[in-house]
Amino acid sequence: MPRDRHRTSRGWHRREDAVGYLMLLPAFVPYAIFAVVPIAWLVYYSFFRWNGFTDPEFIGAENYARILTDGEWWASVWTTLKFAAGRLLIEIPLGLVLAYVLFRGVRGGRILRTFYFLPHVLAPAIIGVIFTFFLAEVRGPVNQILLRLGIIDAPISFLGDAQNALVSLIGVGSWTNVGIIMLLFFAGLTQVPRELMESAAVEGAGERQIFLHIVLPLIAPMTRVVVLITIIGILRSFDIVKTLTDGGPAGATDVMFTHIYRYFFDPQAVPQMGYASALGVAASVIVAIAAVLHIRLSRGQR
C-alpha cells in the first residue's frame, strides 16, 4: 500500500511538472528565438573570418587575439567606463533626492513626477536628434540663449570638442534616465513606514538625520537594484551616442557598441562580421563583470 501511494504521488508530481513546463513554453519560445539563438550565433561566428557575403573561414581564436591588441577598442571601453561613471554620479543621487522630495510631499507632486518621467518615454535616438539641434554651435538654441544672457562671449562647441562632447553626452543621457530612477526610488520609499520617520522627528531628529539613518538603510535593497539596472543600461548605450555624436569628434565619444556597429554596418568599409561578433562577446563579458562586481560589493556592504 505505501508503495502504491508513493507511485501515485510521484506520478502526480510528474504531471504537475509537465503542466508547469507547458505553461512556461509560450514565454520560453520567444526568449529562445530572440535571445538564446542570437547569442549562440554571435559566439559561433566569433571564431570565423566573415564579411557577410562570402563563405565564413574558421580561424579559431584569432579574433579574440586581435581584440587584445586593438587600441581603438580599448579606447572605446575606457570612454564607456567614463561615460558610465559620469552618469552614475549624476543620475543616482539626483534621482534619489527628487524621489525623496516628492515622497515627503510637495505641491503638484504628481505633475512633477510626470514631468520628470517624460524624457524616458521618448526613444533615445529621437532625443539624440533633438539635442543635436539644441547643442549646435551655429544657431543652436542653447548657444543663442547663453550669448543673449551674456554668459558666454563666443559659441561653445558642445559636440565638436572632445571633452565637451563627452560631457554633453553625459548630461543628455542623465536627463533622459533620471526620471525612471526617480520613480524606482519613489516606489522604494513608499515601503518606508511613515510612523518610524514621525517617531524620529518627535524624538528630535532632523530631516537630514532621518534621511541618512532611517530612509537610506531601509531602501538599501532597492538602491542596489537601481544601481545595477543603471550600470547595465549605461554600459549598453548605443542609440543616444550614435545619433548625438556618432562617436566623434575623432572617436572621442566612441563607446563599445558604436565601435562594434561600425564593423557590422559601416557603409564605407567591408563588414567584418566575425571580428564584430567577437567584440560583441567581449562587450557582453565586460558588462557581466561590471554587474557581478557591483553585486559582490553591495553584498559586502550589508
UniProtKB/TrEMBL annotation:
Keywords assigned: Cell membrane, Membrane, Transmembrane, Transmembrane helix, Transport
Residue ranges constituting the ABC transmembrane type-1 domain according to the UniProt record: 77-294
Location within or outside the cell: Cell membrane
Main location: membrane
Keyword presence, Transmembrane: yes
Membrane topology label: Multi-pass membrane protein
Sequence intervals crossing the membrane: 21-44, 84-103, 115-136, 165-189, 210-235, 273-295
InterPro entries: ABC_transporter_permease, MetI-like, MetI-like_sf
CDD domains linked to this entry: TM_PBP2 (cd06261)
Superkingdom of origin: Bacteria
Family classification: Belongs to the binding-protein-dependent transport system permease family.
Protein name, per record: Carbohydrate ABC transporter permease
Source organism per UniProt: Georgenia alba
Lineage of the species this protein comes from: Bacteria, Bacillati, Actinomycetota, Actinomycetes, Micrococcales
